[in-house]
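Study both lines:
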Amino acid sequence: MKVLALDTTGAACSVSICDAGSVLAHISETIGRGHAERLAPMVSEALKAAGLTPKDIDKLAVCTGPGSFTGLRVALAFAKGFALPRKLPVIGVSSLELWARQHDPEGRGKIVSLSDVRRGQICWAMFDEGRQVSAPITQESEAARARIAGLAPGALIEDAPNDTRILAWFGADCSPQDYPAAPLYSRPPDAKLAGGKSLPQ
């Protein structure tokens, strides 16, 4: 199964294409901003490097965040647009779970992944033997770290780079029902509509 994996949640814009554990193409650039302009050309470059065309892709995997509010939506929108006419499955994996998989690919340990989401807060989740045992939660940093310490994880992963090669490898066995391609926001957006209404999630 040829999986196209995408990540635009942070400063890097990253694309990988993998097939049955083999990396066919991998491109990652730290660009800061401009993911929307760079992602499509990068996918084209990766397809060319792999000797493939869009019709050869069987599935897409996208990193869903936490991360930049605008950035994480770039890869999600691209993936859904790429998949729709071809009726391809799209799965979403959080950065928190991806970091746990990168650190412990065989899923044997007890791991907490956390991301500094600013304003004195962190977003975190715990994974035990490859399973997420707590949904991602955003808390004040001091309270969160005290709670995490009480869980006594075997490893604590903080703001690691996202490797789309691991994302593609893991995503090959995930279903859209279990891993929906929906953004993981660390907090509600600041922007408000007229009358104080919040933007739709």
